[in-house]
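To: structure desk
From: M.T.
Subject: fold request, one chain
Message: Could you run this one when you get a chance? Sequence is below, nothing fancy, just the single chain.
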Amino acid sequence: METRDPQRRQLIESLMARHPEKVADAAIDLWEQMAAQIISIVGEDGFNSLYARSVFLAQPTFPWLAASSLSQPNDQRFTELKKGLEGQTPSQAREANSLLLLTFTGILAALIGEPLTTRILCSAWGDDASTSTSTSKEFTHE
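Reply: Done. Structure tokens follow.
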């Protein structure tokens, strides 16, 4: 995981930097795209557990992060995250979401392996993932 984390970090930061004026919206778009892919593999409960764990691990750095209730309807899954991000400066929101995505994808990679995690991210984020960084070729083809 350590050798892949810088590539995931660069990918996530690059994707977040594409919409500097709409950090919260860009963040939620990334989460929704990724959630759709992961839920199809591990189910709703599996995704919710991974997400809640990621928020828990990121809260010491960003105490304002809050996990949504697991009983939230699918279309409101990231309501609390969006509210939290909107209440921060763009820089803080970008940093928090990057940490949250890195934590989530790190846990996922530890559970299912880096190659499958990479495929899921490329599937979720499509061309954005494969063209967003100068290391994308390394990221998507290993």
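Reply (cont.): Helices lie at 5-17, 23-58, 79-86, 90-112, 114-131, 136-140. Let me know if you need anything else for the meeting.
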